[in-house]
Inverse folding.
């Protein structure tokens, strides 16, 4: 299986291996470019620098504070600070699954579960050109000091047809009120995809590392994996 990425509009499409090295025409904008490499070669675990560096999308996500999921009017925001949260999504052009929009995690008081404090993420992913059976989504969280706090992982294990969207809500326990109040930003990306044929494809993490190192130079590739909180 080979992959064609349009240099003009960014459209990604999986094609047969026999097209590697040949020119292909983008079905969306009709731009022509060469199919450079197979999807298997581009997605070997531990390698970076695939087809391109990755597409970065950002948006602000409101004031610092804690949201009450079942009672929004009871949400508590830090009105003494002008700092605003930021959500960052990095789409890997190597993968046939991408986020439908810019998503992130938000501290919540989950009144449906013994009033515990949680990170909550409501996101939607879409397959591009192929069918998939599993997707791993990760969110890297950073505090107001620029320190990496957590790597949160969510598994979407569903049969997804080609060019279909799946929405999922995930929750992760917060371990202190301070973690909620100091949470500043998160970087979301799709880490790996299992296709309907059983092939596991891995993201090019180069762009994720570069964006994370804008918060802290101490961030390394080892920090991308979920770990037990300190």
């Amino acid at each position: 299986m080979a992959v064609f990425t349009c240099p003009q509009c960014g459209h990604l499409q999986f094609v047969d291996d026999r097209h590697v090295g040949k020119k292909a025409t983008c079905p969306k904008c009709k731009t022509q470019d060469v199919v450079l490499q197979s999807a298997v070669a581009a997605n070997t675990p531990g390698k970076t620098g695939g087809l391109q560096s990755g597409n970065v999308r950002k948006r602000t996500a409101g004031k610092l504070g804690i949201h009450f999921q079942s009672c929004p009017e009871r949400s508590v925001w830090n009105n003494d600070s002008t700092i605003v949260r930021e959500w960052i999504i990095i789409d890997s052009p190597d993968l046939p699954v991408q986020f439908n929009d810019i998503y992130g995690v938000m501290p919540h008081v989950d009144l449906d579960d013994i009033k515990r404090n949680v990170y909550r993420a409501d996101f939607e992913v879409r397959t591009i050109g192929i069918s998939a059976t599993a997707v791993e989504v990760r969110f890297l969280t950073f505090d107001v000091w620029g320190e990496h706090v957590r790597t949160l992982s969510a598994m979407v294990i569903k049969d997804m047809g080609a060019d279909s969207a799946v929405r999922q809500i995930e929750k992760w326990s917060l371990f202190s009120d301070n973690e909620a109040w100091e949470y500043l930003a998160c970087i979301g990306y799709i880490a790996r995809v299992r296709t309907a044929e059983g092939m596991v494809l891995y993201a090019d993490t180069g762009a994720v590392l570069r964006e994370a190192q804008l918060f802290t130079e101490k961030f390394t590739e080892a920090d991308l994996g979920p770990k037990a909180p300190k």
